[in-house]
Design a protein that fits this description.
This protein is mainly α. The protein is 53% helix and 0% strand.
Length: 345
């Protein structure tokens, strides 16, 4: 059996990591990234554990590993700070300064100001953790003191919002480096003042505007991920299915396949909504993509097949049964199959 097909297994990467075979471990991770937990590279692991010797070893073999990020878009710098490994953090910063890279200044600045999933740079994290020593270390480099996170907050905003009041030494350092509150900074996107990201996404979906969708994704690469974290939500796919925007819906399905089975706040999948709004072509295209969508249970355990049987939508009923005959066996929470529902109605 292939190693990666086993859900829990000691892979060659586990063995290499245990033995300290850095080059071998890095090669295995490049060949099979899924062997790394949550996208953790050997550099991330060393930062997490505060192993400064391993950090030095990894960086000597692969200095560009600074660019690698986890599934949460965290660099090794983020991970060291989050785990209170301040010595490891300082080693990483000094190593970053010493790396010879084409356009070294720009590269260092990009790594130092990298934003994780929630838009926090390492300066944001250092303020959250009240670490003057780390902040002082960062201010010596080219850290952006006025970078905003996903909530629109600068490091100074976070400090001033702390209860009890934030560290006076930190405030003095930040202001001395030119830090401002977000309120006093010019807006990068003037349109954001009149329309929130959610409103813009809703408008793009209602119009089936793919260019607007990708413009939003370019601003926030985790846009669809954030939506998927909510257990019951009307996703852009639900809205597109209701409106009959087929190309938009297919693109969303390609970008975020999990949306197609996600339940809205009212307990419906995109397929259920397409049926309710009589978007027949949308229903058939969704079925072309995945025939098993006829079996996805929504509110009260009803599948799309149950819905069409209940509503007497004979043509679509034929399509469902032809593409997914096993769907006839599905029952609701009342133990009713499509036959029961058709007779009842």
């Amino acid at each position: 059996m292939r190693i990666d097909e086993i859900p829990f297994v000691t892979t060659p990467l586990h063995v290499a990591a245990s033995n300290g075979d850095i080059e071998f471990a890095i090669e295995v991770m490049m060949l099979k990234p899924s062997f790394g937990r949550e996208g953790l590279t050997p550099l991330h692991f060393a930062a997490e554990k505060g192993d400064v010797h391993l950090l030095a070893g990894v960086l000597s073999v692969c200095p560009k590993s600074f660019e690698d990020v986890t599934v949460r878009s965290e660099t090794a710098l983020h991970i060291a700070l989050k785990n209170n490994e301040f010595e490891a953090f300082e080693v990483l910063v000094k190593s970053l300064e010493g790396i010879n890279h084409e356009d070294n200044r720009f590269w260092n600045k990009r790594i130092l100001n990298w934003k994780e999933k929630y838009g926090n740079t390492v300066l944001h994290l250092a303020i959250y953790q009240n670490q003057p020593q780390v902040v002082r270390c960062l201010l010596k480099g080219e850290v952006d003191v006025n970078a905003k996170n996903s909530d629109g907050l600068t490091a100074l905003d976070i400090l001033l919002a702390q209860t009890p009041p934030g560290n006076a030494e930190l405030e003095e350092m930040l202001r001395g480096a030119g830090a401002s509150e977000a309120y006093f900074l010019p807006s990068i996107d003037p349109f954001a003042r009149t329309a929130s990201k959610d409103q813009r996404l809703k408008k793009a979906t209602e119009q089936g505007d793919l260019d607007a969708l990708y413009a939003l994704i370019s601003e926030d690469v985790y846009l669809l991920e954030h939506i998927d974290e909510v257990p019951f939500v009307d996703t852009p796919l639900h809205m597109a299915a209701s409106a009959g925007h087929i190309q938009f819906a297919l693109e969303i399905m390609r970008l975020k396949p999990s949306f197609v089975r996600k339940l809205s706040k009212h307990g419906f999948t995109p397929m259920h909504l397409a049926l309710q709004y009589e978007q027949t072509q949308m229903v058939l295209r969704l079925l072309d993509v995945d025939r098993n969508l006829a079996r996805v249970r929504g509110r009260e355990g009803k599948t799309p097949l149950h819905y069409v049987a209940e509503k007497g939508m004979v043509e679509i009923l034929f399509e469902f049964l032809a593409d997914c005959p096993e769907s006839i066996r599905d029952v609701t929470i009342q133990r009713e199959n499509a036959l029961h529902l058709a007779v009842k109605k």
